[in-house]
Amino acid sequence: MTIWDFRVMLNREPDADEYNQLVEAGMDDCALVGGSQPYFMCDRESDSLLEAVISVLVQIRQVKGLWVVSVAHDDAVTLGDAARRHGGRTQASLRQLSTGQRGPGGFPEPLIEADNVSVYSWAEISEWLRTTMGDDIPHGNRDIALADAAVKLACRARAMHQEPLVRRLLEVA
């Protein structure tokens, strides 16, 4: 098993009794950080990152009115951010690869494009650079981005009172 480090942001800070309930439920491997955006820093042992996140979500949902609003990750990057993380490529090099001016094509699509800013997934870029371009860079973990997307979808479904339909949608998608 592996110990996975991640953060889960909460809709609100648990009170002392709720916090004790969470620790008794097994969240003694997570530290609560309060403030305007409370969150738990977790070091959860599990076979996979998704299983680790799921186990924390299940424990948090045992407290009525408390839920996770996002799973923290540092996956979203601009091409400038990606160049700094890579350390061996410039922003200009990545821009040329992204537009197809250089390389074999197939650079990952942006997650978001707005106001002349494109935001990409670092996990997708690093995987493409490693497998397509042969760059020697560490693997990014796509699971944290997937967990965050699922949590945000669940929050939207809850806010719109559409949880049963969204569950059905996920089953058939």
Q: What's this, in brief?
A:
The protein is α+β, with helices and mostly antiparallel strands. Helices cover 45% and strands 21% of the residues.
Q: Which key features would you list for this structure?
A:
7 helices; single chain; 173 residues; alpha+beta; 2 domains
In round numbers, the mean pLDDT is 92
Biggest beta sheet attributes: 4 strands, antiparallel
Give the tally of β-strands.
7
Radius of gyration: 19 Å
Helix content range: 40-55%
Give the distance, in angstroms, between the N- and C-terminal Cα atoms. Answer: 30 Å
Architecture per CATH nomenclature, i.e. the level-2 architecture of the largest domain: 2-Layer Sandwich
Largest beta sheet: strand ordering: 2-3-1-4
Q: Rough shape?
A: elongated
Query: How many domains make up the coordinates?
Result: 2
Number of helices: 7
Order of helices and strands: EHEEHEEHHEEHHH
Strand content range: 15-25%
> In the CATH scheme, what's the topology name of the largest domain?
Alpha-Beta Plaits
Label the structural class. alpha+beta
Q: Which residues sit in consecutive blocks of at least 5 with pLDDT less than 50?
A: none
Q: CATH first level of the largest domain: which class?
A: Alpha Beta
Structure, explained:
With 173 residues, the protein is an alpha+beta fold. Strand 6 and strand 7 form a beta hairpin. The protein has seven helices and seven strands; from the N terminus they run E-H-E-E-H-E-E-H-H-E-E-H-H-H. The strands form two sheets. The chain has a four-stranded antiparallel beta sheet, covered by helices on one side. 45% of the residues lie in helices and 21% in strands.
